């Protein structure tokens, strides 16, 4: 689901702005771009986003609108920097890679560069969490509005499937009677003037009726439809659950189609499969 949120706040005497964008994705996937002095909070930020945004490609950007207090100085941990460079060189050697360690990459690593001076503490998660929470709240609000619209569309698809099931159920007795008559005529033509054993014919018709009976499929179909409606009525992420139910719905519709042997039911089944396909496509946009 898509969403956008932005928030600003005061951190270490400066003004920080955080923007969060969310687009459709099957899983949670976060891309975070922070100033180097916020690198220490990235892990906690990622964990919090995972808690609040169950699915989606999430892009986070933070920037200083006003720099922190001028008294702040930048300190270098040379030992840590050497460790990072040594690890990169070892990785290059073992993987037979070309190139030299990138200075910008080394500088971005935790503890290599840090803000300090005049007793001022480095940026902590508690400093930026309120800004993040506000931005996420705006994202969730936009996604909720989109989700309500998507839910209405999905309910319409489910209603169309229910109408199709009613049409199939209404046609089933007529189809079965027609199949009985077709079998009787076929047997009469093959037998010619030979007398037909009516009891045996009745048994064959009963076996035929059992093979083409679709009542169980209709019951399971309606059970899955009810489960879909129940899921849409909740306030929790249901995209994965509805994806599974859509597969089960398709299974039952396909079975009905294979048993139908009736033009009217076949046409209804084709229409139902079309609705299911649109239902499943829409699920890609739902959390």
Sum this structure up briefly:
The protein is of the alpha+beta class and about 290 residues long.
Class inferred from helices and paired strands? alpha+beta
Largest sheet composition = 4 strands, mixed
Distance between the termini: 6 Å
Rg value: 32 Å
Uncertain ranges: none
Describe the structure in your own words.
This protein has 287 residues and is of the alpha+beta class. It is built from eight helices and six strands; from the N terminus they run βββαββααβααααα. It has a domain at 145-283. The protein has helices at 42-52, 78-95, 103-108, 125-191, 198-212, 215-232, 239-260, 263-283, and strands at residues 3-11, 14-23, 28-33, 56-66, 73-76, 113-116. The protein is elongated. 22% of the residues are buried.
Question: Which SSEs are present, and which pair or pack?
Answer:
Elements: E1 3-11, E2 14-23, E3 28-33, H1 42-52, E4 56-66, E5 73-76, H2 78-95, H3 103-108, E6 113-116, H4 125-191, H5 198-212, H6 215-232, H7 239-260, H8 263-283
Main attributes of the structure:
6 strands, 4-stranded mixed β-sheet, 8 helices, 287 residues, alpha+beta
């Amino acid at each position: 689901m898509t969403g956008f949120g932005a928030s600003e706040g005061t951190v270490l005497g400066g003004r920080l702005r955080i923007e969060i964008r969310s687009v459709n994705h099957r899983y949670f996937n976060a891309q975070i771009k922070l100033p180097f002095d916020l690198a220490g909070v990235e892990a906690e930020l990622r964990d919090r986003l995972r808690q609040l945004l169950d699915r989606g490609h999430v892009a986070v950007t933070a920037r200083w609108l006003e720099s922190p207090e001028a008294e702040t100085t930048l300190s270098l941990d040379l030992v840590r920097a050497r460790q990072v460079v040594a690890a990169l060189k070892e990785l290059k050697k073992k993987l037979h890679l070309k190139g030299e360690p990138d200075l910008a990459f080394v500088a971005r690593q935790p503890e290599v560069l840090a803000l300090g001076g005049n007793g001022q503490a480095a940026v902590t998660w508690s400093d930026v969490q309120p800004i993040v929470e506000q931005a996420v709240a705006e994202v969730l609000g936009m996604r909720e509005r989109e989700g309500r619209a998507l839910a209405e569309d999905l309910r319409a698809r489910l209603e169309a499937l229910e109408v199709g099931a009613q049409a199939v159920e209404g046609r089933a007795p007529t189809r079965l009677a027609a199949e009985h008559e077709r079998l009787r005529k076929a047997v009469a033509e093959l037998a010619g003037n030979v007398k037909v054993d009516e009891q045996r014919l009745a048994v064959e018709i009963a076996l035929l009726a059992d093979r083409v009976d679709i009542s169980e499929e209709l019951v399971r179909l309606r059970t899955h439809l009810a489960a879909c409606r129940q899921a849409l009525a909740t306030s929790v992420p249901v995209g994965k659950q509805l994806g599974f139910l859509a597969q089960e719905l398709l299974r039952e519709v396909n079975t009905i189609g294979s048993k139908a042997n009736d033009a009217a039911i076949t046409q209804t089944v084709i229409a139902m499969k079309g609705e299911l396909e649109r239902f499943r496509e829409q699920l890609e946009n739902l959390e």
